[in-house]
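Exercise 3.2. Students should predict the tertiary structure of the chain below and write it as structure tokens, then compare their answer with the key that follows.

Predict this chain's 3D structure.
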Amino acid sequence: MPTFVQFRAFLVHVFTASGAGLGLLAMIFATGGEWPAMFLTLGLALLVDGLDGPIARAFKVGEVLPRWSGDMLDNVVDFTTYVFVPAYAIAASGLMPPGFAIPAGLIVVITGAIYFADNTMKTADNYFSGFPAVWNMAAFYLFIMEPPPWVALGAVVALAILTFAPIRFVHPLRVRHMRVVNIGLLMIWAVLAFLAVVQNLMPGPYVTWPMGFIAAYFLIAGLLRRPA
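Answer key:
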């Protein structure tokens, strides 16, 4: 019989795995062209991803249940919600130039898969090395800002290239430098993103401009990172 501590640890794995269920739900919404619902569901998956790690560490899940790899489970779920579903959205959205929608989606999933297999994807001081395959965020910005198709394609290609570039991107929760500011901006971003979703991904500049500023901040903060 499993002990209470083991049962509790297993529930943490179930909580993490629920992100995959949210990924499937997001994909169902995406295939129906229900983009706001898709992004709302991906947002819930992002919330699960932000909470499961601290809970797992607090309950020492890796020690209690070594049979299951929390890191592997997390990567499977993250690839689904960060890369695979957004890749479909980018390909099916009509945001790409004619004839380039499927190639753009393929670029996303292939570079994203390689990134998730990279053992050096995080630095010793918890920065991401290269663009961290957060295609859910990239797709969200493309949807709410609707740049010209060739600009949108250029952004996809540029981010795919940056996946392998020797630059740093901030992990908002784990990087210690400016952590309070990082978390505060992340919370503001979440509120703005929710406003964009409830406005059918057509928010005014009072949403898009601050979101653009926050994206620029995290990019610059990574480029100017301090050594560990």
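Discussion points: The longest helix spans residues 4-31. The mean pLDDT is 90.
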